[in-house]
Design goal:
Residues 22-427 form the Major facilitator superfamily (MFS) profile domain. One of its GO terms (molecular function) is nitrate transmembrane transporter activity. Pfam families: MFS_1 (PF07690). It is a multi-pass membrane protein. The radius of gyration is 21 Å and the shape is globular. It starts with 17 loop residues before the first helix and ends in an 8-residue tail after the last helix. The chain is built from 19 helices and no strands. It has helices at residues 18-38, 44-51, 55-83, 85-102, 109-119, 125-136, 142-172, 178-185, 187-203, 212-217, 230-238, 241-251, 254-271, 276-288, 293-332, 337-361, 370-393, 399-414, 424-444. Helix content is 75%, strand content 0%. Helix 3 runs antiparallel to helix 17 (370-393) and helix 14 (276-288) packs parallel to helix 16. The protein has a single domain (18-210, 232-442), classed as MFS general substrate transporter like domains (Growth Hormone, Chain: A), CATH 1.20.1250.20. The chain is mostly helical and 452 residues long.
Length: 452
C-alpha cells in the first residue's frame, strides 16, 4: 500500500494538519481505552472482598482481560486495511464503552469474569493506533510516531492506577458504600470512551489524502478485494516467520507490561502492607514511564536506522529486550520497598523502550499487509500476558517467583529478535525511502534552523 503526503516530521504542538490531529487523537484514545481496560485493576482488593474471589479466580479474570484481545487484535488489523482506521477506531470506542459501564452489574465471580472478558476487546485499540500513525508518517519518523502514540496511550495504564482509587474515594465521600462505590466508579471511564469515539470520527481521516473509501473511488488505493484483499494480506503475514518472531518479542515486552498493570497494585498492597491508595500510586509509576520511555525506543530505532538501516533497528530491539529481561530478574529479588520501587522503574524503562523498538520494525515487514502484520504482532503482546497470567494464578508460586521466571523467559525471547532479517533489495529500498523523507524534511526546515 503506497500512500502519499506522509509527514516527514512531528510538529508536536500543532493541530493544523490531519497527520498531527491523528497523532494526538490516537494516543489520547488509546490512553482512555486503558482507563476502561484496567480501571478495575487498582480496585481489585475491594472487588475481591465484595465478591469473595480467591487468588486463582483473580488470576482467571486477569487472563480473561487480555485473552480476548488476542483474537480481536488479529481481526482488527485486517479490518483497518478494509474499512480504514477511522471507522474501526470509532466503532471500537463506542462498543467498548458498554461493558466498561456494565461491569458494575456483576454479582458473582462468573459474571465478573465475563465482563472482564468483554472489556478486553478494547485492548485492540493499540493495533489501530499503530496502524493509523504508520500510514500518516514517513519512514524517518514513523518509529518515533508509533512509539510516542503507543507510549502516551500506555501511560493510561499508570494514570489509571492512581486515578481510579481517587474516583472511588470521591464517590465514597457522598455516603455510598464500597460495594456500590466500585461499581459507580467504572461508569466514569465508560462515558469518557463514548466522547472519544465522537471526537475520533469528527477530526481524523484514514490517510493524509482522505478516507480509504474516497481513495479507492479515485483509484489511488487498491480495492479491498482481489489483489488488495485483507484476507490475502493476512495469509501473507501469517506465512512470514519474521512476523511470528516479533509476535514472541512483543509478548515479552507488552505482555509483561499488561501483566504488571494487572498485578502491581495488589502485589505492593499485600507484599509491603500498604494502603490501597499508596499501592496504586507506586504501581502507577510503572505505567508513568510511558511518558518518555516508549518514545525513546522509537527515537533510538529511527537513529539506528539512519546509521545502519533496517539491521540497525533489529539490533537495537535485541539489545533493549535483553536488558529488560535482566532488569526484571533483578526486580523480582527485591524485598525492601524503596529498592523495589527503584528496580521497578529501571525495569519499566527497558520494557517500554522494547515496545517502541518493536513497532519501529513492524512497518517495514510488509507494506501491503500492514494491518495484518500489526494485528498479529500486537496480538503477541496479549498472548504473552495470557501466558504470564498462569504464573500469577498459581497458588504454589509466590509473586516474586513468578516475576523471576518471567524475567528468564524475556531473556530467551530477546534472541528471537535476531530472526528478523531483510533482503538486500528491501534494505536498499527502505534506505532510499528514509533518505527521501530526510531530504523532504530538510527542505521544509526554516532557513537558519537545523532540521534535526
Amino acid at each position: 500500500m503506497e500512500l502519499r503526503h506522509k509527514a516527514p516530521r512531528i510538529t508536536l504542538f500543532s493541530l493544523k494538519t490531519v497527520q498531527m490531529r491523528t497523532f494526538h487523537l490516537t494516543w489520547l484514545s488509546f490512553f482512555l481505552c486503558f482507563f476502561g481496560w484496567f480501571g478495575i485493576a487498582p480496585l481489585m482488593a475491594v472487588v475481591r472482598d465484595d465478591l469473595g474471589l480467591t487468588k486463582g479466580e483473580i488470576g482467571n479474570t486477569i487472563i480473561a482481560s487480555v485473552a480476548i484481545t488476542v483474537v480481536v487484535r488479529l481481526l482488527i488489523g485486517p479490518l483497518c486495511d478494509k474499512i480504514g482506521p477511522r471507522r474501526t477506531y470509532t466503532g471500537l470506542l463506542a462498543l467498548g464503552s458498554i461493558p466498561v459501564m456494565s461491569i458494575g452489574l456483576a454479582d458473582s465471580y462468573e459474571t465478573f469474569l465475563l465482563f472482564r472478558l468483554a472489556i478486553g476487546a478494547i485492548g485492540a485499540s493499540f493495533v489501530i493506533t499503530q496502524y493509523h500513525t504508520s500510514v500518516m508518517f514517513a519512514p524517518n519518523v514513523v518509529g518515533t510516531a508509533n512509539a510516542t502514540t503507543a507510549g502516551w496511550g500506555n501511560l493510561g495504564g499508570g494514570v489509571t492506577q492512581m486515578v481510579m482509587p481517587l474516583v472511588f474515594a470521591g464517590i465514597l465521600m457522598f455516603g455510598v458504600g464500597e460495594t456500590l462505590g466500585w461499581r459507580l466508579a467504572m461508569v466514569v471511564p465508560g462515558l469518557v470512551l463514548l466522547g472519544a469515539a465522537a471526537f475520533y470520527w469528527m477530526f481524523t481521516t484514514d490517510a493524509p489524502d482522505g478516507d480509504f473509501k474516497d481513495l479507492r473511488a479515485r483509484g489511488e488505493l487498491p480495492e479491498a478485494k482481489g489483489e488488495g484483499s485483507a484476507t490475502r494480506g493476512f495469509l501473507a503475514a501469517a506465512k512470514d516467520v519474521r512476523v511470528w518472531a516479533l509476535f514472541l518479542v512483543y509478548g515479552a515486552c507488552f505482555g509483561v507490561e499488561l501483566t504488571i498493570n494487572n498485578i502491581a497494585a495488589i502485589y505492593f498492597y499485600d507484599t509491603f502492607d500498604l494502603s490501597l491508595a499508596t499501592a496504586g500510586i507506586i504501581a502507577g509509576l510503572f505505567g508513568l514511564m510511558n511518558i518518555f520511555a516508549r518514545t525513546l525506543g522509537g527515537v533510538f530505532s529511527d537513529r539506528f536506522a539512519g546509521r545502519a538501516g533496517l539491521k540497525g533497528r533489529v539490533t537495537f530491539l535485541f539489545l533493549v529486550l535483553l536488558l529488560e529481561g535482566l532488569a526484571l530478574i533483578l526486580f523480582s529479588q527485591m524485598s525492601v520497598l524503596i529498592v523495589a520501587i527503584g528496580a521497578m522503574v529501571v525495569f519499566s524503562l527497558f520494557t517500554q523502550m522494547s515496545e517502541g523498538a518493536t513497532f519501529g520494525v513492524v512497518p517495514f515487514i510488509n507494506r501491503r499487509a500492514l494491518g495484518a502484520v500489526a494485528g498479529i504482532v500486537g496480538a503477541g503482546g496479549n498472548a504473552g500476558a495470557v501466558a504470564a497470567g498462569f504464573l500469577f494464578k498459581s497458588e504454589s508460586l509466590t509473586y516474586q517467583e513468578g516475576l523471576l521466571y518471567l524475567g528468564m523467559a524475556v531473556v530467551v525471547c530477546s534472541f528471537f529478535a535476531l530472526a528478523v532479517r531483510f533482503s538486500p533489495e528491501t534494505a536498499a529500498d527502505e534506505k532510499r525511502r528514509f533518505d527521501d523523507a530526510m531530504a523532504e524534511r530538510n527542505a521544509a526546515a526554516p532557513v537558519g534552523v537545523p532540521a534535526e
